[in-house]
Here is the input.
Amino acid sequence: MHDAEKADGTVSHWKVGLTCAAVVAAAYLAAGLLFDPAPSTPQSGDSYVTPPVQFPVQIPGCETVEPPRNGSPSSVVFLDKYGYDNPFYPWFSGPKATAMTEALHAALPEDVEIAYASLQQSLLFEPILGEDPKQENYGSDTAAHATLLRGDRAGALRVSVRQSAQPVPPCVAGDLDERRTLADGTIVDTHDTWHEMNRVRTLSRTATAYLPDGTVVRAHATDEVTGRAAAVPLTVEELVTIVTTPGLRVTAPIPPATFAPPRWCITGVKQSPPIAEAQARRWNAVLVGIPLDGLTLSPPLGALLPAYMGGGVCQIVGLGIPEQDSLLSIKIIIGQPFPQQDSPDNDATSRRLADGAVLTTEESQYTASGPTKSTARRSRTVTVTRPSGTQITVDSSVTAADEPVSQALLEAIASNPGLDVS
Here is the structure.
């Protein structure tokens, strides 16, 4: 399957703001870790410790408190057949995910920044994968996660949203520190705790809101992070603000002209060294300034983020009207060998540019297989490899009846000298 069909594109830094995209994300395999923070039985060879639980105990806001229960981590794997259009969850859609993502970003404190990462690690609400709404804890939610930066420290945040017909669960010792009942009937449970796995301690804070319309929102922040000084990035009160944000409710209206999220993207089978955020920002500035001869893109070029797989950075955008399944993708990788001009891969043609770079072009037709039907498609691809090892690939993928973006425009984008390493 062609790259533009296999994964989804990116947007600019989410803290700056979400640019509504015209295409629907399509995940192919997702694994979810569903974790119950209650005391659990250690796995063989592992040491798992949680704080001792006192019982009986009084918890503020709880009329009665039930004894502690045992829980354990579990892993569930789902095959995503529907993307954002899962018929088992009609309340959710691509535009709904975009609206919820915007609401979540707006609810973050001003001094909190989302770390530079791939799209699915940038607090973007993902598709709901389950097919049984009765199994509310296994695949029935949409979740967004990211590493958050605050000052010189960092930590993780995961926010999940689901629709529930179940009553609010009872207060259980060890599961919460406080239960609040708000004026509109919303109930919010909070918990500030820790656990140790093999003597490594993780701090965490959680707020869970049970809203009158059946929405359940859970925000879980931890100090799990690599490569930076760690701290839980949000206070309990800030988590309460997030879970009670009106835009996260399942019944919240979708603003007009809200489109589905952008597609995740990959850079292919070639592996690329990591590309620094500063370099990606410079390339984004170049892409924004390239004339497109009236071509309408949604969102615009200039939102490169790290690829979902393969290294490097990439972006996929829609062509024309939002509903049209015509795509333009750009991916940039570094550290690549300089090609032999006279031996391109497959049926591609190749030539050397005046600045010494090698430009390769290829046109192809293929069949994209989906969960319900297969579609004949065609693509036009231009790849420029520079002596520095930087490789820029620009691809236009359309249905077989449509015409890809012109060769001249694809070459103008891929050969722009500003897209080399600097």
The first helix runs from residue 3 to 6.
